[in-house]
Amino acid sequence: MTSSLFRLINGDCIDVLRGARPERVDLVITDPPYVVNYRDRTGRRIANDNAADWIEPAFRQIARVLKPDGYCISFYGWNRADQFLAAWRRCGLFPVGHFVWAKSYASSRRLVRATHECAYLLAKRHPRRPTVLLNDVLPWSYTGNRLHPTQKPVSALEPLIAAFSDPGDLVLDPFMGSGSTGAAALQQGRRFVGVELDAGYCAVAEKRLRQFGAA
Fold first, then answer.
1. Is there a domain that residue 172 lies in?
2. What confidence tens digit (pLDDT) does each residue in 17-37 have?
3. Residue 84 in domain
């Protein structure tokens, strides 16, 4: 699944990235499994969301293909933050910032109403400082999770791409899902490579990106 602006690959990102040339990617933005055995209201699940053994091998390959002095932005499960942070550091990706998106609704109601999403800004070596500094608390638009059980809004990703990459840069999402990062990258004038394990979601992403799909 390839065009002049994007390439989509159906496969395991560890295997796919292992065969890629090193230090080619300008920016990584990704939403990996949170290791919480998630199931949405309709029963949909996320592959590899019941174990953490993939975290370090995956991010080791992500760090390998990221250019020196590049950024990686990764969503994560807050109750597995220790595992993600330890793996990131071992892979040479160090936390330099943190984003929170405030929701107008609760995605779960257990001990508290869960009304936010969060992601770490990770640095490989010493990236340049962005020209425009983003607030670390940002707005969130509800997608309805129509295309994927953890679908992220394009509007939440576009400011990240604008701040941490330049027009024409190559953006990678190794856990692509339904292609929201790709849609945001194309709409910001970047190129995109996405990897997705599930063939069905990969097909959804291709359809979106061929139409410059929005949120």
1. yes
2. 999 999 999 999 999 999 998
3. yes
